[in-house]
Write a structure and sequence with these properties.
By secondary structure, the chain is of the alpha+beta class. Helix content is about 35%, strand content about 20%. It binds adenosine monophosphate and zinc ion (ZN). The site of adenosine monophosphate has 11 residues, from strand 3.
């Protein structure tokens, strides 16, 4: 055997031992023997740098330092999951599914691992990239760190596709977590709070050698790619397992919602026997054809549903009620609690939502309260332990003036929250609005962070977002922690934001109830801020999905002289306040007023391209056939009951070609 063959055979052998140990949990040699072989390989690789392989088992020990994690766009968006908490929720979900797909529906049930989601890209069987979920569209590249996780195969086995993405959860098993904390405490270090945060924090460590020391694991649950020749979720899981991934054996194919519930009940009871934490179960429509029919909402697949286990509760003392002012002036009461351990984290604060909530539960300072951790990050108070109420306790009187600017609070009719109406000079409102304006999903201004905004406002350099465009480097330099370079970056970042498209500017303005999706709809419909500014509430509600509440808020925003002046100043600064010409060129109103349902598989365009074509030409896409449907565009394999429904309702069924003809 020559050196090259020797190296290759050691790599193969070590890879197999890794697999036996970490994936199969069934080692066939001792740790000692493994180490000897690994050292032998390391020595050979050092003598022969020309035979280096980034995916060799020796690369698992780390050694790479990452200073900045690159942002990378996902090829396939990483969606979130809708949540359910009861049998009724699941049955409602099934009803929605049956409206869209034909025939029998089977489900795969999986555990919902509580860690950090990860997208791995493989090419020719080799791991080429690992990217965190981030905001779902793009995440941070953490390949060097992920390579050190032994359950992530660096080289696949068997009959894998040439290129694909696979998704999973990076978790820290409970035993490993406890061991890490023992070591920390022995070194007089603060213990980590919970396995989930420790797992996701590990991915962003700069030194991969540190990551290699942590007993992280990667559990896989979904494969994405083109032409993969996989037709169901369960088949995907089985294939991934055969290629060498760790796919927990608890995943199960079931035939009905009743069986889903059995699975949920079983794991709710037995979850504490698992080596890692789970916070529920994920149910997925098994057939990929049906998944494709169901598609996605703005934030989650329609074919998947998380079932969250009941939250854990504890009781603790409420020390004090404080009031916070948000960027819209909304007041949020917050309870400062005696710190207490709950579901793996230490809880110090709880949201009290609003005055009604405090009154309804009769929550008072110094009460003993029950705290529950649901899906949100901030836990909530669900009841007061009246047996423990101090004798001289007084009911809580809700504040009547703003804690920040002392303006008298108002409570708009029909709203649960109180607001500080001092829109123009209440500090958290002024600062919060500008912070929202510069944030990543809005104007994404590089070189300017939330704290600097607060500083700029406090120093009197800016009082609204239009003022940003008049800032000069000379003005900024004297600020705390600013140097010439960072001041220049800041001013450049503001300048660059003039390229941000209109729909995002509209979102950035921070009009109440105008979130990202609404901003897109309004931008598309009105095309310029001038047109939007003159729209009446009656006109606004004719826009698809714009309700009265949003319409009134938009009208109110533009009825303020102050806001109008600010918008005019943005316009003269060169901020994009209308849809750009080339974007307009691709849009028509040809399909205005028409609602389409798209079903089946298409030849010349993908289902998503079809949907975009419909929307760009003013039409509306709906997922189920009803009397409101104008046309059904039928591809190959359209379900027979769908076809029957369309025929019953006398809806015109178009072929792909006929539809494209319609646009000509
Ligand atoms: P959420 O963050 O609550 O919207 O839930 C979605 C997240 O659940 C995904 O991004 C995954 O990280 C995680 N997850 C855990 N287990 C699974 C699973 N078996 N299937 C899909 N997602 C899962
Ligand atoms: Zn105020």
């Amino acid at each position: 055997m020559n050196t090259q063959q020797k190296i290759q055979s050691l790599r193969d052998e070590l890879r197999q031992h890794n697999y036996n140990y970490y994936i199969l949990d069934n080692p066939t040699i001792s740790d000692y023997e493994f180490d000897i072989k690994l050292k032998e390989l390391q020595a050979l690789e050092e003598q022969h740098p020309e035979l280096f392989d980034a995916n060799s088992p020796t690369q698992r020990v780390g050694g790479t330092i990452t200073k900045n994690f690159n942002t990378i766009a996902h090829d396939f968006r990483m969606y979130s999951l809708d949540n359910s908490y009861s049998k009724e929720d699941l049955l409602d979900w099934e009803t929605r599914i049956k409206k869209i797909v034909d025939g029998e529906v089977k489900y795969t049930c999986e555990l919902k691992y509580d860690g950090a989601s990860m997208n791995l890209t493989y090419e020719d069987g080799k791991l080429v990239r690992a990217v965190t979920r981030g905001d779902g569209v793009q995440g941070d590249e953490v390949t060097a760190n992920v390579k050190t996780i032994k359950t992530v195969p660096l080289q696949l086995k068997g009959d894998f596709p040439k290129r694909f993405d696979i998704r999973g959860e990076i978790i820290l098993p409970i035993k490993g977590f406890l061991k890490m904390n023992e070591d920390r405490m022995a070194n007089d270090e603060e213990p980590y709070r919970n396995p989930r945060n420790t797992a996701s924090g590990s991915l962003k460590l700069q030194d991969s050698t540190e990551v290699a020391k942590r007993p992280l694991e990667c559990l896989l649950y979904s494969i994405k790619g083109n032409n993969l020749n996989i037709s169901s979720q369960i088949e995907g899981l089985e294939k991934a397992r055969a290629w060498g991934f760790k796919v927990p054996n608890e995943a199960k194919l079931v035939n009905s919602i009743d069986e889903v519930l059995e699975y949920v009940e079983y794991w709710d009871e037995h979850r504490h026997n698992l080596p890692y934490e789970i916070d529920g179960v994920v149910v997925k429509v098994n057939s990929f054809y049906q998944q494709d029919e169901l598609g996605f909402t703005a934030k989650a697949p329609r074919w998947a549903m998380a079932y969250k286990f009941k939250a854990e509760q504890v009781s603790t003392k409420l020390n004090e009620i404080k009031y916070q002012v948000g960027r819209t002036g909304a007041i949020t009461p917050v309870a400062n609690l005696e710190p207490v351990q709950l579901a793996g984290t230490i809880v110090k604060r709880a949201s009290l939502h609003n005055a009604d909530q405090i009154e309804k539960l009769d929550i008072r300072e110094r009460d003993e309260v029950f705290v529950e951790k649901g899906g949100e990050i901030i836990p909530k108070i669900i009841a007061v332990d009246l047996t423990k109420r101090p004798e001289n306790s007084q009911p809580t009187t809700y504040i009547t003036t703003c804690p920040e600017c002392e303006t008298e609070l108002i409570r708009p009719e029909g709203e649960a929250k109180h607001y500080c109406p001092n829109y123009n000079t209440c500090p958290p409102q002024v600062i919060g609005r500008i912070q929202h304006y510069i944030s990543r999903k809005a104007m994404d201004i590089e070189g300017l962070g939330g704290e600097t905004v607060a500083l700029l406002v406090k120093e009197g350099l800016i009082a609204n977002y239009a003022d940003l465009y008049e800032l000069t480097v000379e003005q900024v330099i004297p600020l705390e922690r600013m140097a010439e370079k960072s001041a220049k970056n800041l001013v450049n970042g503001i300048e660059t934001s003039k390229q941000i498209p209109f729909e995002r500017v509209l979102f950035a303005l921070g009009i109440r109830y105008v979130g990202e999706t609404v901003a897109k709809k309004l931008a598309k419909y009105y095309k310029s801020i001038d047109a939007l500014m003159f729209a009446s509430a009656i006109d606004l509600v004719t826009v698809d999905e714009i309700g009265e509440r949003i319409a009134e808020s938009v009208v109110e925003f533009f009825s303020s002289e102050e806001n109008k002046t600010i918008v005019e100043r943005l316009k003269s600064s060169g901020v994009q306040l209308e849809i750009s010409a080339d974007k307009l060129a691709n849009q028509t109103e040809k399909l205005k007023g028409q609602t389409f349902v798209v079903s089946g598989v298409f030849e010349s365009v993908s289902r998503n391209e079809l949907k975009k074509l419909i929307e760009d030409n003013g039409g509306k896409v709906s997922s189920s056939i009803s009397s409101k449907t104008s046309y059904v565009i039928a591809g190959d394999k359209m379900g027979p009951s769908k076809r029957a429904k369309a025929e019953n309702l006398n809806i015109v069924i178009l072929s792909e070609q006929a539809f494209l003809g319609l646009l000509k």
